[in-house]
Design a protein that fits this description.
Length: 210
């Protein structure tokens, strides 16, 4: 059996195509069911108003392995958000997890000993956008889930990379030197205060949706 995995953390952002609000920003924890991640996973089985948790399933009776629980990072206030969270995003997350096993990003011999917690972002504007591209919402969440898991398993970014970038990279929403919200190219500030950055301005390596 491969090395026991106690606690791995990863995140990724995959941007929407132009004109969409379908950015995906999952934050992932991976660990043994007998460790701290497993305890946190079990504790999340209780429900909290506005923050419904659910397993990542590919379809009815198709719970993926490792068992993965999805937790929304925004308050769910209506059935339209539930439909996106428990439909497209759930499907994309589940497919991403399973493909990580198929592609040996996650160790196949530990799938029943590991669990995953995925904090999921859905832009509130997706719910009200009459022209939402649901295929793009799937794509961003699928790619971001795979990328976040891959980074977690590789412990990326490394400390050396973080130190090298300390003075080179600024936060997307705030420039501490200017003490103000940053803008970038054709970016804009959405009504809910989130900094919008077009995919063309930030390139990242990630898996491709099937």
């Amino acid at each position: 059996m491969s090395e026991r995995i106690i606690f791995r953390a990863g995140e990724a952002t995959v941007f929407a195509k132009p004109g969409q609000f379908t950015d995906a920003m999952p934050e992932i924890l991976i660990g043994d069911v007998d460790g701290p991640v497993g305890q946190a996973f079990a504790n999340m089985m209780g429900q909290t108003a506005g923050h419904t948790r659910m397993f990542a399933i590919r379809a009815c009776n198709q719970l993926v392995r490792p068992a993965t629980i999805m937790v929304p990072k925004v308050t769910i206030k209506n059935s339209a958000t539930v439909e996106l969270f428990g439909g497209i995003v759930q499907s994309a997350t589940a497919d991403g997890v399973l493909d990580c096993v198929i592609e040996n990003i996650l160790p196949r011999d530990q799938v029943n000993n590991l669990c995953i917690i995925s904090l999921v972002w859905i832009d509130p504007q997706c719910v009200t956008d009459k022209n939402i591209d649901k295929n793009d919402l799937y794509r961003t969440n699928y790619e971001a889930t795979k990328l976040a898991i891959s980074r977690a398993m590789k412990n990326e970014p490394s400390l050396d990379e973080l130190i090298a970038n300390r003075k080179k990279i600024k936060h997307d929403m705030f420039d501490p030197d200017a003490r103000k919200i940053r803008t970038c190219g054709s970016s804009s500030l959405s009504k809910n205060g989130l900094h919008r950055v077009e995919k063309s301005h930030r390139k990242t390596q990630h898996g491709k949706a099937p």
